[in-house]
Amino acid sequence: LAGAQKNLALALTPEPSNEEALYYLAVVKAKRSEYSGAIEQMRLAVEKAPQRADYRYALGEIYRKDERYAEAIEEWKKTIELDPKNADAYEALGRVYLDTGSKVEDAITAFENALAVDPKRKRVLGPIGGAFFSSFARATIKERIACVSCGPSTLAKEAIPFSARAPCSTIASN
């Protein structure tokens, strides 16, 4: 990789705005975990070719590796605007939403979109199931916390879904 990085840097000497050389140099730097340099090179490639969805997707991947999730999400959203059939971008969005625990419902939607674009993309089925479980678990936990002071008999009463129940008497009186 060091040799490739050196050759790509040399290729940029006579033509510093060569978008493909910038792209590949960023890829090599990212593989070497040189994320700040990779981001700088990929941003330059994106500036030179803003309509290249593959460059934006790659920039999102580098941001993710550098744990800059908000920026990764923005790049993947731009990727999808440019290429609505980019299943990789939908899947990446779903994974980062799920991994950060920030938007479970958005993760489910992103995985469903990846599957709609590429029905053979079975690897998203596991994360979709995990996201559904996480969403269900959150609702159940919120329900239990909301009614903890009412005691277990309130939780079990008639097995009425939480959304259809009257408010917990303790919460209603506060």
Describe this structure in words.
This protein has 174 residues and is an all-alpha fold. The protein is built from 10 helices and no strands. It has helices at residues 2-12, 19-31, 35-48, 53-65, 69-82, 87-100, 104-117, 125-147, 152-156, 169-173. It is elongated and about 55 Å long. The termini are far apart. Mean pLDDT is 80; it is low at 151-174.
Task: Please outline the helices and strands.
Layout: H1 2-12, H2 19-31, H3 35-48, H4 53-65, H5 69-82, H6 87-100, H7 104-117, H8 125-147, H9 152-156, H10 169-173
Helix pairs in contact: 1-2, 2-3, 3-4, 4-5, 5-6, 6-7, 7-8
Order of helices and strands: HHHHHHHHHH
Number of helices: 10
Helical residue percent?
over 70%
Give start-end ranges of low-pLDDT stretches: 151-174
